[in-house]
Amino acid sequence: MAELMSPVEHTIVSTQPLGDAANLLRDSDAAVLVRDPSGHTKGLLAARDLAAHAAQNPEGWHQILCAAACPAGTGFLRAQQPVEGVLWLYRTEKVQPLPVLNGWKPVGILYPEPVFLWCAEQPDLDFPAPPQPRQ
Description:
Elements: E1 10-13, H1 18-25, E2 32-35, E3 41-45, H2 47-56, H3 66-69, E4 77-78, H4 83-92, E5 98-102, E6 105-110, H5 112-120
Parallel strand pairs: 1-2, 4-5
Antiparallel strand pairs: 2-3, 5-6
InterPro entries: CBS_dom (IPR000644), CBS_dom_sf (IPR046342)
Domain CBS: 3-52
Protein name: CBS domain-containing protein
């Protein structure tokens, strides 16, 4: 996981407005790590998240708190988690950047592109089909 993740470039407190996150993301492809006031990771905000809020609320999106704007169900990865586990998350949930934690400390962000490149370099990758629901 360590060789695929990127460093955390931007951090913001969950009580700050989205306008502050937008300022951090200006001229950047990175996501913003959102932490609560006590320092615990709450999730990530990417440019597409900000654009979605701007489209829904053109007049007041920049005043929405980052805590309310973090996508629901954002998962967290552990630094020692195998890449195959990430593939399973992508397959069963959503393909999105994910925060990587060592304990409770954020140590990086895993973006989808490096994971897909890793997959392309694995000729023997055997990824089983997901279990079928019982009928």
